[in-house]
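Hi Q.,

Before the meeting this afternoon, I wanted you to have the cobalt (II) ion prediction in hand. No need to reply - just skim if you have a minute. The sequence and ligand are here:
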Amino acid sequence: MIEIKRPEEIGRMRRSGRVAAQVLAAVREHVKPGITTQELDDVAKEMIRKLGARSAFLNYRGYPRYICVSINEEVVHGIPGTRRIKEGDIVSIDVGVVCDGYIGDNAATVAVGKVDPEILRLVRTTEEALYAAIDRIRPGRRLGEVGYAIETTARRAGFSVVREFVGHGVGRHLHEDPQVPNFGPPESGPVLVEGMTLAIEPMLNLGSDAVVVKEDGWTAVTADGSPSAHFEHTVVVSSGVAEILTCAGKK
Ligand code: MF3
Ligand code: CO
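Predicted structure with the ligand bound:
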């Protein structure tokens, strides 16, 4: 069942969205050669505490850290640990927080120093795909427009779209209905209604779309070892264009 949020709930989600974005911004600033992914998790932990929130990921189905950090061939759900970031890496940071019972979920891929131009193009295209998808959201349109916009943007640029992981409804729970695939025909899926809150999260690969999950049970990597990028925003379907809730600025 897709829940339609009341205005008061959307107000709370604006807050959690802002906090999620502020934490993501803080972590991004620390992404530099030499830092370990655990140190990035520590930055997130401290910032989340300071802002009076909780991690939406910690202990979710046994997930052991505050955020996810996925480097290069890692697609999503990288567990922070001893791996050190180096020049030329791309680093995907995924942050979900709970604030006052409601969740904000967002992610971005950061290029570290001088990155191969083709990989940089992958990162930029993935972000572009996210915004192309958000641009299609209107009440009365179908959710398939989102996946169609993402897949079209990826294809045109020559990249593949990960199919094993999808976006999702979000609110009191991290994963609510509906699932939001990053592919498929525009005339598919439920009709969008004002007050639906969605996490839109395209994952694009430089090579094939196939992914495998590592022995740690979480880290998803590309099957061919090619780099992968990931961007995510939490949005609310509104009367005109969708409102992006995961904005660090005021509001
Ligand atoms: N943004 C991801 C998602 O919505 C992050 C989940 S990480 C987990 O699926 F640890 F919480 F699973
Ligand atoms: Co998500």
